[in-house]
Each structure stands twice: as C-alpha cells, then as structure tokens.
Amino acid sequence: MTTSRDLPDVVGVDGSESALDAVRWAVRGVAGRGRPLRLVAAVPGTPVTTGARARAWDDRRKAAVAAAEENLRVAAAVATDTLPLGAVGTALRERTPAQVLAEESQRAATVVVGHRGRGGFRGLLLGSTGVSLAATAGCPLVVVRGSAPATGPVVVGVDGSGDAAAALDFAADVAARREVPLVAVRAWCDPATDPAVALLLDPEAVEREEAEELERAVAPLSEEFPTVEVRTRVVHGSPSAVLTGASDGAGLVVVGTRGRGPLSGLVLGSVAQAVLHHAGAPVAVVRDGAPPNR
Fold first, then answer.
1. Rounded to the nearest 10 degrees, what angle do helices 270-278 and 239-246 cross at?
2. Less packed terminus of the chain by CB within 10 Å, N or C?
3. pLDDT in tens, 226-268
4. Is the backbone of residue 34 left (phi > 0), alpha (psi -120 to 50) or beta?
5. Class of residue 160 by CB neighbours under 10 A (exposed 0-12, middle 13-18, buried 19+)
6. Residue 187, CA distances (Å) to 162, 206, 211 in order
7. Confidence label for 75 from pLDDT (cuts 50, 70 and 90)
8. Between 56 and 230, whose confidence is greater?
9. Which of 194, 196, 141, 178 shows the shortest CA–CA distance to 163?
10. How far apart are alpha carbons 93 and 72 in whole angstroms?
11. What angle do CA 288, 291, 292 make, to 5 degrees?
12. Nearest to 134 by CA among 291, 240, 272, 271
C-alpha cells in the first residue's frame, strides 16, 4: 500500500527566484524524512501544424526545452546543497504548467510553487487556472512567498469544516517536524446584519462558545503530536483578515479549500483565495480527503 511517505514532494521550477524559494522551502520539509524531492518544469507540446509555422514553433520549443533543462539543473544544485543526490529527481514534461502540476499532484505528498515566476508558472495562483488547481489538487498545495523564517510558527485556520480538520492535521505535522509552535486560529463575526438582531447577541458568550469549539478541535493533537506546543486564538473579525494578519512572522499559514459558511460551495473558498493573495508567509491549501502529509 502506497502512503504519502513513499510519495515525493513536487516543486514547480521555471527559473525564477520565487521558484528557488519554493525549492528551499520544500528541502526543509523533505530533509530527515527520507522522502524524495521531484523538481518539475513544463514546456509546450508540439502543435499539429506544418510548413514554416511548424519550423518556427520547433525552434521556439527547442529554446524552451534548453532553458527548462538549465532551470532544473540550477534548482537541483540548490536542493543538493542539503539533500543527497539520490533524493532529488528532475522531470521535464509537456503541456501547460497547470496541467502538469495537476497531474503531478495525483501522485505527490505536496506540490510546492513560488508565488510568482518569470516563465511557465507566472501568475499561476493569480488567475482562474491556479485558483482551480488550489481547490482540486490531489494533495496539499504550498505557495511560497519569499523566504519565511524557519523558526516561525505554523498558523492554521479552524472553522469546524472537514477541510479545516484536514488543514489542522497537516499543520500539526509540519509543526512537529519543524519543532515550532502551532497556532490554531478561529475567527468569528456577527452572524446577523440586522442591527436589531445583533443587539440580542452576547459577544462574550459567543466568544466563549467559539473558544470551546476550538479547544475541542485541537484536543486530539496532544496524543498524535505530543511534542507540539499548541496555542489557540479566537479573534473577532473576518476569517481572511484575521488569518492574513496572523501570517506576519509565521513560517506557514494553512487553510482549507472551503469553509462551512455560505460560500462553502465555491470551487475555492473566498477565505483561501484572500489568504493566497495577501498573506505575508507561505500558504498551504489543504482539502478534505487529501492524503495525510506523513
């Protein structure tokens, strides 16, 4: 039976410094686990055409392949500064970057990409293709923005949904491996927009109830991850704003693809989208049903 321990961490490589940041982030996760690292670059396939257009396309494709091979070589050199040569593999694949990464995610422990690239992965998580990938990937997707502090805590949003439970498990595993605290955050806001109804609410009672639910959610972690220091925070405000604020100084922010609110049926929830765009730390998007990252 194949487990995530047997699967590689996949990194999208395009020659950008952002992609190399993604490689460095993935290396920290792979080191000491015995899990392989797979560096993947995408190049366009050969279109069905003939004549001068086919020759021109072939020239461009050859240049793209040469550049991708060099990008993989540089990324592998960065990875093997820490990992043994046998732990790092490379692959040059045809099709669009989003298609390649979606396929890779079906047999990966995680897929890791930089926030912005200069080649095939440019804008991956800024447009509809990347947002779709974040929601439908077969494994957790990590988007690396800059070089996060290795000692920063892992922050995870917890709202009681199935995706949030999967995100919490993923976050605890990362925190255990990095030997950093886990900060479980639950945001709440007034459920009614009608001022007359809002006046009937007892904010202190609501916050106590939210805090109790959060404590129940994190309680099982003490048995499975006994070495992890778990901190809980209940904050009044929109989940996206609260998690974005909590990302300052974090090593990783973890969110589910969809929450339990009125927008839970979206392909990728509004909270996950906002955090992907605005967090000041790497972001992991985890869907319910994705294999555990260990």
1. 30
2. N
3. 999 999 999 988 888 999 999 998 999 999 886 444 333 334 5
4. left
5. middle
6. 16, 11, 10
7. very high
8. 230
9. 141
10. 12
11. 95
12. 272
Instruction: Give the predicted TM-score (pTM) of the model.
Output: 0.85
HSE-CB at 139 with a 13 A cutoff on CA atoms is 26
**C-alpha–C-alpha distance, residues 79 and 27, integer Å:** 6
Which position has the token pair 């990347």?
130
> b/e per residue, 226-236, with b = 16+ CB within 10 A?
eebebeeebbe
C-alpha 52/C-alpha 223 separation (Å) is 66
Whole-angstrom distance, CA of residue 234 vs CA of residue 219: 15
Beta pairing partners, 9: 37, 110
49, 57 contact by CB (below 8 A): yes
Measured between alpha carbons, how far apart are the two ends of the chain, in Å? 14
Q: Helix, strand, coil shares of the chain as percentages rounded to 5?
A: 45, 20, 40
Query: What is the predicted pLDDT for the residue at 6?
Result: 79
Cβ distance 147 to 21 under 8 Å?
A: yes
Average pLDDT of the chain? 82
